[in-house]
Request: fold
Amino acid sequence: MVLIGTMIEVAIVGGGPAGSYCAYCLAENDVHSVIFDHTHPREKPCGGLVSPLAQKLFPFLKEIPIEHCERNKIYFISPYGKRVCLSCGKSKLLCFSRLKLDQFLVNMAVNKGAELIKEKVIAVERKKDFWKVRTTRQSYIAKTLIGADGVNSLVRRSIIGSLSKVDKGICYGYSVKGIEKEDLTIRFLFHRMGYIWVLPRAVHTSLGIGYAEISHSQGLKKELDMFIEQHYPHVKKICRWTALIPHIKDVKTFRTPVAGLNWILIGDAAGHVNPIIGEGIMYALLDGELAAQAIVENNPQLFDGLWRESYGWSLFRDVKLMKWLYKKPFLELYCKYLKFQSLI
Reply:
């Protein structure tokens, strides 16, 4: 338990996959960290799909003892109605409830030696060579600060400024019951940048629409409701939700440093989400691992080079490819590329 006045080695703001896995990796290297999060774990309807590549990079994902949905193929439908089936062969696509997946990752970190403080961080302030982390209850002092607190990251806003509205997308959707045996499907939209997804989980399905710019999000609910009425009129809606997500549209955003002498931004706070298919879990885990590596080497700033070298090229590439996805022949070519690179 952290005592008032005690120096925290690493303060991690945010207990999602990026923050929790970073804490776990630090604990494996005998570095004590404290996760600050008053909300995690929580259900997140717009996430939960784990690709074969993510499982290859992090084999423990295949062994998680929680119920989930498994499929060996996913369907992509172009804005012009072209349907492309992408088979994973012997591999599987896994789709988890984010509540249960995030709980598992938090438990991994805590069981390894990290600490979880369920308090809301309301401010972070640099104090000479340290950080003052202020919560709704009290203040803490930390040697190193990690921002893993999502698209509207308070840590990012306090250090380098928030992601711009242009680089944020908005999603709208439902958790539904009645189509858990349906195929995994991503249907790209004709008239706006984004898609409708059908992601069956073990006991419910995430059915949503999104990735539109905030300023061009009018009509999302109506469009999704019409889609459901046309294709799945029998579903039972459990709850509805709206969420902001990173959706980087300019490679210049990725050129902004996300690490410094004693701070690092990871996961959604860094904007590290695939701009085409929206995958974020793999990048969150990669960021957690690489951030821990940089801290263990006593050089947090090293993280900025590590993520660029590890997978940065793929994010840069997909930002540039995004506009081509809505051309008639490109979706099939892109799916073949994903298959060739073993990304799906």
About this structure: The domain at 7-340 is CATH 3.50.50.60 (FAD/NAD(P)-binding domain). The chain has a mean pLDDT of 89. The chain has one domain: 7-340.
